[in-house]
Write a structure and sequence with these properties.
The protein is an all-alpha fold and 211 residues long. It contains nine helices and two strands, in the order E-H-H-H-H-H-E-H-H-H-H. It has a single domain, classed as Serine Threonine Protein Phosphatase 5, Tetratricopeptide repeat, CATH 1.25.40.340. 68% of the residues lie in helices and 2% in strands. It starts with a strand and ends with a helix. It binds adenosine-5'-diphosphate and magnesium ion (MG) (2 copies). Pfam families: Dak2 (PF02734).
Amino acid sequence: INSINSGQCKEMILYIADKIIESEPYLTEIDSKIGDGDHGTGMKRGFSAVKKELPAYMPKDPEDVLKETGTILLDSMGGASGVLFGTVFISGITKRRSKGTLNLNDFAEIFRTSLTSLKQRGKASVGDKTMVDAYEPAVIALEKAVQEGKTLVHGFSEAAKAAQDGVQYTKTVKARFGRAKYFGGKAIGLQDAGATSIWIIFRSMSEWISK
Ligand code: ADP
Ligand code: MG
Ligand code: MG
């Protein structure tokens, strides 16, 4: 496939939800080593709410599916990371006029806009050991695939790989945000939980699109 409609967007989000819920113990373990250990349960709570509420939602267009997903996450997760993950899904679609489907270029534009909002809101840049370390390279990979005229499948596969590399990169840097900041040099060798969630989200989108 080269573009996805509202129904497919919904299915893809529900696929992400299953994968995040499955990853709860892994995310908990990561956030326990370097944070307060609540990231897995927070993400699970958010995506369980998505699984419960999204199926009955009647979207106008695929952008509306993303907006509703972010709204559910924001309402159910609470806290700083609820706002941050809500932003990932909501902020890219405000001010867009939908064509009724999303292609690789649309996804690249949407996620670039939401990355910009996330960075404005959270004040983190690449190298601060946050979700931005996985998200920014994923967006760049989507944009590169657009420029090279690649398929949707290829673009998301590259984005998932870039996010995974971003997670590995978080092991090499100290944190400037959240509780991990107080770990100083002891954070070296440990990966960031939020970046790991971003990787799982992109990997899941890639898996769903290539099936
Ligand atoms: P909390 O830190 O409130 O316990 P979570 O454990 O759910 O929330 O999420 C922590 C993750 O949030 C971190 O691993 C990091 O990726 C992300 N994060 C924290 N602060 C910021 C920020 N200012 N900008 C971007 N991401 C951030
Ligand atoms: Mg935490
Ligand atoms: Mg917390």
